[in-house]
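# nightly structure sweep
# worker-07 picked up a monomer target from the shared queue
# config: single-sequence mode, recycle default, output format = structure tokens
# input follows
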Amino acid sequence: MMGRQTVDQSQLFYLFNLEQRIPQRHLLRRIDPIVARILAELRAKLEPLYSEIGRPSIDPELLIRMLVVGYCYGIRSERKLCEEVELHLAYRWFCRLDLEAEVPDHSTFSVNRHGRFRDGDVLRELFEALVRACMDAGLVRGEGFAVDASVIEADASRYHGKAPGEIDWSLPECQTRAKRVQFGYGLNYLIDIKCAVIVDVEATPARTYDEVRAARTMLERTEATLALKPHRLVADTAYGTGKFLGWLVGTGVTPHIPVWDKSEREDGTLSRSDFTFDKERNVYVCPAGQLLKTTGRVGADHTLKYRASKRACDRCPLKPRCCPKTPSRDIPRDVHEEERDVARALMGTPEYDKSRDERKKVEMRFAHLKTHHRFERMRLRGLSGARDEFHLAAIVQNLKTLAGYLWPSAPNVPVVCVA
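# output follows
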């Protein structure tokens, strides 16, 4: 028989140990030693961010830990993040806040975030320190890299677009929310294929040529700062331009990249592949045996023009199939065509086919970021804001990869390393 409780039996005093309330298998407990070690190494770099005058400001380490929580669990709103840290025991524990410690107000948090990290390289140094930790753990082989880019919607409205040079992002009104988005930024990842560790990240405008240029920037920076240079690079067709392949082959990196080639014709006329290039004579030979010569002048698109004589084309029986609408036939040749041929020769080899399968690892990084971390739209504005957000996203993804390797029994932390 059930009765009504008539006496208040609630306990007046509690012995509460926050440390004991966090499960050993919790993700934050597993990444905490990594974050603590890296922050200890960077403490000298964080020292200038501490203020000795005025009201006490937010501890930079607290700010970083709260940002890690937010990007790790897809808490995109700074107001929501402060509320969750206030209520969630695991978040409090990870941020080194006891039960009575005050959580920063969301407005104070935003001001500190915008004002203290935008002009420095703290997040970049944090990212590189984490990559070195992954290298020390053996998660980075350095044999093969993959590069790709994904567009993240910007916090901007197409109805209020301005040229980048016309905007002062430091103004308070530039930090407010925007309407429906039509613009975006390119999130560029360079990963080591072994365990999909992100070894570099770059923010660019969402334009293909900027993304290709970012790939070169990341490769050069990775070699300079981390002493990592891959034997092969895996990428999609967007990176198969003559200029990029020429630079890549020149540095000694094998390009497992499809060549960007628009020379094949679909109207029934002869394509460039029907012509043979004679390297010794520096001429193209047409199917009828006529020679196409060049003046040696390079065009604005980094190509040489090889042209047959009008007289030869007029009497050629193949003219209706070769150049029916022009007096003579032209063949453009990229100044880096030899490097493009190197990339073509690799296509179809077992090593190339293996690389094509491994390229999915960088694509999965973007998929996880948008689905598991809910990173589909920017919250900070400007290219500097995109740079901060992309570094934080890469930091969190590498943290989960490293934690999954150090503690493989952790739930929801897949181990993606391959031998």
